[in-house]
Amino acid sequence: MTKPPRSKPLLRDTEPPIRSKPRQKRNPAQPQLLFDPMPDRVEPALAQLKAKPPTGNEWSWEVKWDGYRLAVHIEPRGIRILTRGGHDWTHRFPAIEQAARALGPATMIIVGEAVVLDEEGRPDFGLLQQSLGASGRQAGGRASDAVLYAFDLIYFDGHDLRGLEYRSRRHLLEDMLNGPMNGQPDAIRLSETLDAEPAVLLEHVCRLGLEGIVGKHLDRSYRSGRTGDWVKVKCIQSEAFFVIGYEKSAASPAGFGSLVLAAYRGADLVHVGSVGTGFRQAEIIRLRTMLDKLRWKRKQPPLPYSGSADIVWVEPTLIAEIEFRAWTTDGKLRHPSYKGLRERQDNADVFRLD
Known about the structure:
Elements: E1 48-49, E2 59-63, E3 68-75, E4 78-83, H1 94-103, E5 108-115, H2 125-132, E6 147-156, E7 159-160, H3 166-177, E8 188-190, H4 198-207, E9 212-217, E10 230-234, E11 237-247, E12 258-265, E13 268-275, H5 281-292, E14 311-313, E15 319-324, E16 326-327, E17 333-334, E18 337-342
Parallel strand pairs: 1-10, 6-8
Antiparallel strand pairs: 2-9, 3-4, 3-5, 5-6, 6-7, 9-10, 11-12, 11-14, 11-15, 12-13, 15-18, 16-17
């Protein structure tokens, strides 16, 4: 018996046709073009952090993948893989590039999250960073084993889809990735929607050791920035902080005891505590080498500090992704654990205190 389709096809004869957006002014360099020119880059839509998921049938839920946001541009001239900050990292994701070629010849922009999976099939941010080279400065830096979990389609076959509601874009994405002609390339996979109450889903994904869930409003168009159309609920809080120093370690003279962290408050940096767990030994040595090249050359530390620890201050350049359970009453991270370095090229957001 043939298994019924997971979701209804977008286009049926009995349904009203999809109307195109009003035509905008054409690119002067393409005066005869009949369709929407593919944008060179689209500023990403971002999810707002929520303490608990909203309820209602107007939300679609999926796993929150722990990796790098990418936009894959499939064009007649070739493939471009752009980071959230707009940098071209095509050469750093060769398997995703190859899978994207198999989806042609139609032109499209697929939005998704690049991850590296551990032996149990869970995304591991540390493994992704090892593949890329932690700060982008190592030779090579290719995540050949990375997988893109696609969750949106914002341009397809000459049409800009950003004006369509999310449910329509999602149906097109599902039909394109699961179509009988294309199949689904192994390095580009559909980020499956999860059919259950969001509170139950959150409990389940947390039990599996995943990062959380993301909800997308089915009736909203694609809008860049944190508009509230997309929301995220995390099992464990995870944010990016500046590394502003390290505490020395008597047990490991070539390493350190902990990294000192800072966040923004307005335009100023504020000390939010230290992290001393989550490091592999090789990562400690590598980080110490990087930090010693960034030593603070001024007499005063880079921010107000009232502690008593012996700290070697550094220029606030490196950005670390840190997991933590909560905040203490004095504004410090509770039970922090190091996950890896974020890359400035990926437009990593340093956490801002309210």
